[in-house]
Design brief:
The chain has no helices and eight strands. By secondary structure, it is mostly beta strands.
């Protein structure tokens, strides 16, 4: 079985179409159950996201249902894949992890871990509880999958 590093319902709060590239939107979102904040660059010509919409977002180390590593290209439709159940898929590498202090509503600060992932130039910033992001490692192959709910 594939291991999920992140599996949450996210709600889009803001879409910024003024990022550096013409075909890219930067999505600002929060997870519903856990306290995750994320900024995600998405190719808006392929996958259009709007404020207020909810999505299931999964980050995993493989697309294969049995959990084995993806070793190369496999022809579409020949093998069952997690990608078959999602609308938008990207692959990339985490390149940085750092601890950050985030101000809480009561004026205190809370320690979070920020994970930075590059998907061929499209970026993800995922910030959350250190215990919830402990599986992420720099330079490991990851897949991000999105499906509108």
């Amino acid at each position: 079985m594939a291991e999920f590093y992140f599996d949450e319902i996210i709600k889009v709060h803001k879409v910024d179409n003024q990022v550096v590239y013409d075909k890219v939107s930067r999505i600002i979102a929060r997870s519903e159950v856990e306290e995750f904040y994320l900024e995600l660059d998405v190719n808006k010509e392929i996958y259009h996201m709007l404020p207020g919409e909810k999505y299931r977002m999964v980050i995993t180390n493989t697309l294969l249902m049995d959990g084995s590593a993806v070793t190369g290209y496999f022809p579409e439709g020949k093998q069952k894949s997690l990608a078959d159940k999602f609308e938008y898929v990207m692959h990339g590498l985490p390149y940085k992890m750092s601890e950050v202090q985030v101000k809480t509503d009561d004026g205190n600060s809370d320690a979070k871990v920020a994970v930075y992932v590059s998907f061929g130039g499209l970026q993800l910033l995922l910030r959350g509880d250190p215990l919830k992001v402990h599986k992420f490692k720099v330079d490991q192959k990851l897949f991000l999958l999105l499906r509108k709910i």
